[in-house]
Amino acid sequence: MAAPGRPRRANGQDVLTRWLDEPQRLAVLLLLPTLLLVFGVLLYPILHTFVLSLTDTHLARPDSGGFVGIDNYLAAARDPEFRASMGRTFYFALLTVPIEVFLGLLIALLLNQPFRGRGFVRGLIILPWALPYIVNGVMWKWILNANYGAFNALLSQLGIIDRYQIWLGDPATAFHFVIFASIWKETPVAVILLLAALQGIPTELYEAARVDGANAFQRVWSVTLPLLRPVIAVTMVVKTVWALKEFDLIYVMTGGGPANATNVATFYTYLTTFKFLKFGYGAALAFIIVLFSLVIAYVYVRLISPAKSVGSR
Amino acid sequence: MTGSKRSPLGNVALYAAVLLVCLWVIAPFAWLIVSSVSTRAQLTSIPLQWLPAQPNLEHYANIFLGGEGATSVHQSLRRGGFNSLLVAGGATLVSLSAGALAAYAVTRLRFRFQGPFLATMLVTQLLPTVVLIIPMYVVFLNLRLLDTPVALMLADVAIILPLIVWILKGYFESIPEELEDAARIDGCTRASALVRVVLPLSRPGLAASGMFAFIIAWNEFFTAFILSSTLDSKTLSVIVAEFSSKVGVDYVAMSTAGVLTSLPPVLLALVFQRYIIQGLTAGAVKG
Amino acid sequence: MTRRLFAWTTATLMIAALAATAFAQQITVIMPRHEMDLVGMWERQTEQFEEETGIDVEFIQMSWDEVANKVLTDLAAGGGTYDVIEFDNGWVSQFAATGWLEPLNDYADPAYLDALLPGLLSTFSNDGDVLGIPWNNDTRFFFYNERMLNEAGIDTPPRTWDEVVEQATVLQEQGIAESPVTDYWNQEWALANSFAFYLYSFGTSYFDDAANITIDEPQAVAALQFMVDMLREHEIVTRSAVTLSQEAAADLLYRGTSAFFFQGPPVTKNYADDPARSQVVDEVVAAEWLPAVDADTQATLTLPEAFAIPASSRNKDAAWRYIEYMISPERDRERAVALGSLPLFTALYTDPDLLRQYPFWEQFGAQSAVARPLPQVEWYDELVQTTIVQVQRALLGSQTAQESADNIAAFMEGREVEGTPLSR
Asked: pTM for the full model?
């Protein structure tokens, strides 16, 4: 509490400062704003969503809102559209995450090499991450435009295609181009994380390996990768959770089409809630997505505890 | 991999790879910039004319200077820029203030619910935005706060605050407690030690978090899209999305809008990259 | 004593003044900006209304989507903000069910209602209640490039779908039009409009008056199959149609890539003759008929919008005076002259001055005779979503037209139309 030898102040102030100095109390006071915000803007909404999901609330039907228990969840499990959208979400994650991490690793290894202008390139890498999601979508949609897009122009001027293709008009190619746009934007995060970890590996280990006769490939394989494993794992898990959240890109590039090919879970939930105004059902869909995210989060927590040994500090 | 001399072939391969990476990163965005200073005729020509003979700055001029050709499109971009600034700036300030206080409490003061608190922070980061936005929409609807910058700000804070707490926690942990103890022996309370010792030392951390927060808030689309309906609160992200569907065929205007919306976060990130990188690594990897 | 008297008098006067301003009538109007209103006509007429009646109007105008959003969220939260709202033809069933709107039968003079275009008025009525007074006659019309047809030696625009295919093929073979037909088939709302048009032109629809689902029957499947054939077999529709919005589709007409635009908004002719936008100035005309399976099944879509008064409004009388003023033959005529917007009153279609200014209104008038609205069901939003996905699948060839139609039918089964469940 008050340190010895401290000059005596006026009575009231001393009481106040001593009162404030008590760790528990100060803690609560300091935490109050955050707690209010977190509770008000995060926890309460989550609870509210859960409650909503147990009703049949429809925004354009004032007499709706009655309790229906888990009916919404059962309906969702049986809803072929929702199941299909979850499938698309998982496919999206399955492709984007490993590719992003793999590319990220390659680029990180590259940027770990000494070369002139390395600092500049390392800084440049951040550009796709900083680009707003919507601009990313608009940009790729423009590049892939069926009638005037740069991609068509490039391929045809190089003689690779003879007719402009409708990249975003075919269900298969559209989805994969959306995946590509996401990879382009998100890979820098993997690069940065992996590069930071790479920089933490002491050079002596490489020296020792080289003395033992290992070439570049073998050094990466036996020294780098094992030490990076925790970081790679964490990165993959975090990115998977982010992939489950993807919405902005789909909304602006394809609007869920063509023929529903890019209608992922978040987009379907958005349609259900804000277009069809079925707030009760939409809340249930949102919660199901949360459940999957929580499962993955659990994996994350299990992974990060033993990973404390590889200090990236 | 350091210290050994690279063969000339290896050198060529290395720089070629570096060049490829640079192109991969810049080319798409560069095309957007070029599109924004081309004319519609050029952009819709087949075969495509890649570079305009003369840059067409019409849209930029209209947006920044008003003028004869200025239409509601340019006006809405101006208003959107203002809204984005307001919302992102406000969200950053609120998150930093609340987050700094919370991070201090977590690192310096032992309190009973510390574990669950941190765990909750972590979990909220993993939730899809749609789960938060539905009830927020209903609450704001009933409070008649829809389509206000305040609503957008609160939504952004919800997303950013836990991350800020996490990042600042890392920074505060690296400031030795002895410095505060010394200050307190000299007569400071904990509170003033926080203000006079910890905060100044953690300026890089605060800058990093602030930058991070601003960029995330500026780039945020989904919550802004759902909670706004008119120019009263629409941010640039929302307006650009609208352009893509409504101004459908005016590719130059669309590109201009895209470039302008990207400039603040991209420039901030490029100039203060060190901070961003620290933020990213702290947020995801530091336990 | 005098000071107190003075204070009281001042206070009373102030309160009286405040009360007076409170009682000065004020209404709030919210409507979308008419796409043809580039000169602020509606605002000007509103100001005239204020001057003539002394009623203050807070006039809110924005894009259709924004208005829709605002109106819906306000009504869902209990209303009270607006006195005159936008009322879209797609909301009629929904709003009728919620009781959000004040029926206008008691406010309107029967003669006044009779003077409006009957098709428009009936769109906004439900069960005998007049719920809205139309302000926008957004009927779609068949436009074609006359110069291209002349060059190919074709005398008259096509009357049947078979003729469409014939003429388009000729245009293509002679290199006159690269993609003779342009249409908006992107996976978005407008695709359902396009699909409805083709359904009507084949003499069918989603369901009939007896609540039987007809979308999976041969006529309807033929309509969808025709769309597919135009794209994939005859290749007379631009291949990028599946990614085109309405604006982008119209643009192909203005660029001279296409010759036929079956369902263009009224403003198409204006834009086509605008050198800043179009490369085919003075080449595009409106036809006097629309292509269909045969001349009897001609149809065109009308997507009108109306003014309505929420039941929660506190200024209903003033709100009605506003509607009656703005939707009157005088005001309508002013707008027709200044903006070229289609009249709402039947008499104006035979007005000699207007016809002199817009000779092509004769064609519009002819096409308007077969105007039909979209299906009126409460769950239209969901129907649109299902339909556009199924139609796209057929267009992209991933399933047959019959399969798509069956899926739409399965979606509709059991849903109610005016209280009766649909059956196959």
From this structure: 0.81
